Amino acid sequence: MRIIAILSIYLQNKDCERRYTINLSTFRAGCTKMHLFILILLTADLVYVNSQTTQGYNLKALSVKEFLRFDANHDGTITLSEWETVLRGDDDDGDGIITCDEYVRHSSSPHNIALGVLNQFNGGDCKLTHDEGLVPYHHMDGNGDGILQEIEFINFYIQVLKNLGLTDHGHTTKST
Question: Residue ranges of the EF-hand domain (predicted)?
């Protein structure tokens, strides 16, 4: 960001392209080698930032992926029936309790994240009862209409992930 700010200020002071994104084909002949040097620095900085973000977790992407796991009919909402169907499906042995192993096996999230999510709702005992499984559904239904909108789910799930110490792109704030 600092290079973008420097570049935009520098280019505004010169009579060169005033866009934050510069296409080499539109780079005016009047621009100096300094402009080109700044452009190269900006590109290098963007490549570095992109390499950092692709090595971690994107919280919204994790949330959307988990949402899709529950939204069986792909209508952009999750009904209580869809929610309960997933809970029953995650209970491999049909004993009414979802264990950590069962949840991790079915979750769309990586193992360590799935365990952390489950433990936020089961009291940390690695066993999720049906009643405990309904608690997040009712918490997410912010407007109380009985149907989870995608935005309700994603906002809630991102907060759950942040409670685990994750921030966007996998950088953690808590030691594990």
Answer: 58-93
